Amino acid sequence: AFLDAVTHELNTPLASFRLGLETLARHELTPAQRREFTRRMGEDLERLERTVTQVLTAARAEEVLPASRRAESVDLGRLLRANVEELRSRHRLDADSVRIEGPDSPSVRGDPAELGLVFRNLLENAVKYSDRPVQIRIDVEETTEGRIRVIISDQGIGIPKQELRRIFRRFYRTGRDVQRQVSGLGLGLFVVRTLLRKNGGQIVALSEGAGRGSRFVVTLRRA
């Protein structure tokens, strides 16, 4: 079943990308049409990249994970803003659909690429499991233990309480995936937890149940 899912996740954007190339090569298109095909092909490439990254990260998680070798001081505010801008552009969201609240530029310790993937996955999920208009809030807090907490809240379909612990398992697909016919490998949150552990962080999922939205609480080391 896993190989079937991987094959589907790779073949679907590849087929779409191939169709886009053939259309651009064989047909006379207006500038607007060419821009639209180019945009869609870019999305196909991003989907391929995400799939490959998720599979490779999950495969490496079977090894004993050392602490991240590229740990450095990371401007968390800049990292979050970059992810939010990318998310808005990719999903054509309004400017006020995703809000960041809290200290403007706290610094955390970690690998910037790995932490970027963590927040990209979490924000993608927040959009994926929300109806329009999307409303996502990111709260950044300093804890009394000298760490930084990031809370990503959405007003989406929520998570049944009995699934809150299971969603971080490798290949786990929830009832909400079936409900919304969401494609995927069941690796996104597993990758998030794996990378956070490598970077000395933690994550907890909270939800009051179906239809009540979700909150993902990430705790990171302060730089």
Commentary on this structure:
There is one protein chain. The chain is of the alpha+beta class and 223 residues long. It has 2 domains: 1-62, Helix Hairpins (Orthogonal Bundle), CATH 1.10.287; 72-221, Heat Shock Protein 90 (2-Layer Sandwich), CATH 3.30.565. The chain is 47% helix and 18% strand. The chain is built from 6 helices and 7 strands; from the N terminus they run ααβαββαββααββ. It has helices spanning 2-26, 31-60, 76-91, 112-128, 175-179, 188-198, and strands spanning 72-75, 98-101, 107-110, 136-142, 147-154, 202-206, 214-221. A 5-stranded mixed sheet has the order 2-4-5-7-6, with helices on one face. The protein is globular. The termini are far apart.
Q: What name does CATH use for the topology of the largest domain?
A: Heat Shock Protein 90
Helices and strands, in N-to-C order? HHEHEEHEEHHEE
Which band does the percent of strand residues land in?
A: 15-25%
> Largest sheet, described in full?
5 strands, mixed
Number of strands: 7
Question: Which structural class should the secondary elements be placed in?
Answer: alpha+beta
The average pLDDT score comes to: 85
**Number of helical runs?**
6
Number of domains: 2
Strand line-up in the sheet with most strands: 2-4-5-7-6
The portion of residues assigned to helices is: 40-55%
From the spread of the alpha carbons, the general shape counts as globular
> What is the annotated CATH architecture of the largest domain?
2-Layer Sandwich
